[in-house]
UniProtKB/TrEMBL annotation:
Whole sequence portion shown: 53 to 311 of 314
Taxonomic path: Bacteria, Pseudomonadati, Pseudomonadota, Alphaproteobacteria, Sphingomonadales
Function: Binds and transfers iron-sulfur (Fe-S) clusters to target apoproteins. Can hydrolyze ATP.
Gene Ontology MF term list: ATP binding
Sites where the protein binds ATP: 26-33
Designated name of the protein: Iron-sulfur cluster carrier protein
Highest rank taxon of the organism: Bacteria
Coiled coil, from the record: none
């Protein structure tokens, strides 16, 4: 961590020192939720006791991605109990706090309160929390950096310029708050042919990596645009839970090394 920046290590009744990894993007639809789910699973596979917090108030998609859609967390002593998923990663989602299908129209203090409930839950032995933030730079992000002091942030971007400009704004928010940027992940980078597996680059190659270098932050890797990733995600079977560790394990290894 940088000088002057204090990482808040959450110590619960179980006395577990817990580190938070915030996953952010400048805009929606770039694959932030997909990356968060797969990163959490890959970290768990690498031996970290990892939990997942879905703080995306605009489109909480983790219950579907993690195959626990429709579940409701129970509470003990008014503190939430994370829901077990088939992938060894317990989950709490904003989507579990509202009626299914209802839009969340909360004001700042309510979102801050809800985020607090998800993070300060009965996480037990969990030592790493991956937090899927909403896109952009709103109330949830501010509460996240000011109150919950993540150990670092992972920024997700697509190769297109606009997403990169938006990503710069997200990077700015963390840097201004003194939260270290662990690095940038380029998603939908190149197109993986469903027939032969060859990856081609309809949007050009290397833009995100160059932008990361320019911004002085680490480049954690590329995730190809792959129909198999979308279909697996829709089916509640994140690819990182499978046997192919080529894409997500190296990203998780860099994040784990940071923690
Ligand atoms: P965000 O959280 O940034 O809004 P999502 O993770 O929900 O984005 O992804 C948006 C859509 O794109 C989803 O349907 C998801 O399955 C799909 N998607 C994300 N990453 C990839 C990828 N690398 N290849 C194919 N589809 C992807």
């Amino acid at each position: 961590a940088r000088p002057g920046y204090e990482v808040r290590t959450v110590v619960t009744a179980e006395r577990v020192a817990r580190r938070i990894v915030a996953v952010a993007s400048g805009k929606g639809g770039v694959g932030k939720s997909t990356l968060s789910a797969n990163l959490a699973i890959a970290l768990a596979k690498a031996g970290r006791r990892t939990g997942l917090v879905d703080a995306d108030i605009y489109g909480p998609s983790q219950p579907r991605l993690m195959a626990v859609e429709g579940t409701r967390p129970e509470a003990r002593d008014k503190v939430l109990l994370p829901v077990a998923t088939p992938y060894g990663v317990p989950l709490l989602s904003m989507g579990q706090l509202v009626e299914p299908g209802r839009a969340i129209a909360w004001r700042g203090p309510m979102t801050a309160g809800a985020l607090g409930q998800l993070i300060d839950a009965h996480w037990g032995a969990t030592d790493t929390l991956v937090v899927d933030l909403p896109p952009g730079t709103g109330d949830v992000q501010l509460t996240m950096v000011q109150k919950h002091r993540p150990a670092g942030a992972v920024i997700v971007s697509t190769p297109q310029d606009l997403a990169l400009i938006d990503a710069r704004r997200a990077i700015d928010l963390f840097e201004k708050a003194g939260v270290p940027i662990i690095g940038l992940v380029e998603n939908m980078a190149g197109y993986a042919c469903p027939h032969c597996g060859e990856v081609s680059d309809p949007f050009g190659h290397g833009g995100a990596e160059a932008a990361a270098r320019e911004a002085g932050i680490a480049f954690l890797g590329r995730v190809p645009l792959d129909i198999a990733i979308r279909t697996a995600s829709d089916a509640g079977q994140p690819p990182a839970a499978g046997t192919d560790d080529r894409v997500f394990a190296p990203i998780a290894a860099q994040v784990a090394a940071w923690l």
